[in-house]
Give the backbone structure.
Amino acid sequence: MTTALPTSAASPRLASYPDLTATAEISSPSGGPAARRLSGRRLRRRLGPGRRIPYGLALGPALLLAVWVVASATGALDARVLSAPWTVVTTAHELIADGRLLSNLLTSAQRAFLGLALGAGLGTVLALLAGLTRVGEALVDGPVQIKRAIPTLALIPLLILWFGIGEQMKVLTIALGVVIPVYVHTHAALRTIDARYVELAETVRLTRWQFVRKVALPGALPGFLMGLRLAVTGAWLALVVVEQINATSGIGYMMSLARSYGQTEIILLGLVVYGLFGLASDSAVRLIERKALSWRRILAG
């Protein structure tokens, strides 16, 4: 026979924890197992971050925009230092109308996605080589860790000497900024795959390719997606720099030209475009992560 726990009146220590008191009352014989499970779920929900807020990702940028609008409207922000939001919107409309913004936008997007695809693919292949074979680890991991210690932007003078100032140099710079986070996180995920899965694959006599496809790649997917999120940010950071070095097109070139004429509204427009691209890219990777890893039970839900 189950004995009911003392209520808050009988136990002063228990009364100081209202959630535990409610749990104790629901866990009495009159509540039954269903009530106990419901109480446990409620307690866990209070400890976790809570339910997902609709459009929560947009709340932070919306707050920044509101502060910018209020500061500009009240005169607290000098237009010579930072142009007002409506000035930036008007400038954007003018640049869209004459085609300059769209042309530079497409050029920047092409550079970023080419560099991202090249770097992510190379990082994944290197991680598989180093993570699944000792020979690959001996040959690959050392040079990659050396590159990790060298900032990508420090290699730009050397890349200019080797490849000039054309598109090849820009795409390679972005790719070098992407390959490291993808490699590091994918390699770490491969190394932490449960050894029992490897033993099971050997027991059922999977080939090397079957093992990679059915065990290694699914096991490394969480690490790869985390590395990809960091790589997306790295791609846009590298793009900002390479487009302001002897470029003749792109958002960075447009901002560099505006700097020469003191057009802060165009510079701000370029920053907004970079920020929106980065936010959209990160949101896309997070959406893929939620869909691909929907089987996991995690704190974020």
